[in-house]
Amino acid sequence: MRRRTVTAGSLEEILEATAPAAQAADQPQAPAPAARPAPSQGHGLRTEFEFELPRGYVDEAGTLHRHGAMRLATARDELRPQIDLRVKENPAYLSVVLLSQVITRLGTITDVHAGVVERMYATDVAFLQDFYRRVNSEGHTRAAVTCPHCEGAFEVDLSGGRLGES
Fold first, then answer.
1. What is the structure's pLDDT at 156?
2. Residue among 43, 64, 59, 77 nearest 117 (CA)
3. Does the pLDDT at position 98 exceed 70?
4. Cα 107 from chain centre
5. How many alpha carbons lie under 13 Å from residue 84 in its C-beta half-sphere?
6. Beta bridge partners of residue 50, listed in sequence order
7. Residue 45's pLDDT is what?
8. CB 125, CB 103: distance < 8 Å
9. Residue 165 Rama label (left phi>0; alpha psi -120 to 50; beta)
10. 165 has pLDDT over 70
11. What distances in angstroms separate CA 137 from CA 18, 72, 112, 131, 141, one per listed residue?
């Protein structure tokens, strides 16, 4: 087995470099698959989740952004940070890169990049890390909590509703 060395570049370059070789000319090629229509939006799978940050992100103009949306992560989203040089230099940076890829909107900001996540308060980043884990591992945004006064157990939706609202 030969080992192939790939330099860090874009994920597309790495995927192209490591793709299996084309079929030999003497082997018959399989027919191309027929084009399938785009899947309907009524498939019932929820792929984007709304959230409300505990503190909020303050942009350069001083505007506070608290409401946002995060989409489900793909395998590519999980793999891309592994080739990012910032992550290789500092593994703790992985969550910053990963969150910047899956947050689709933060207030009026639609281009959420690593610089935006870097400037968030630590409590908001911790909230987003937990939110990411919930929607991608558990498939929902509910959390079991216990009231500190009456010790009653109940569920809350972390996706941004105010406490006490249904």
1. 72
2. 59
3. yes
4. 17
5. 21
6. 69
7. 77
8. no
9. beta
10. no
11. 29, 10, 22, 10, 10
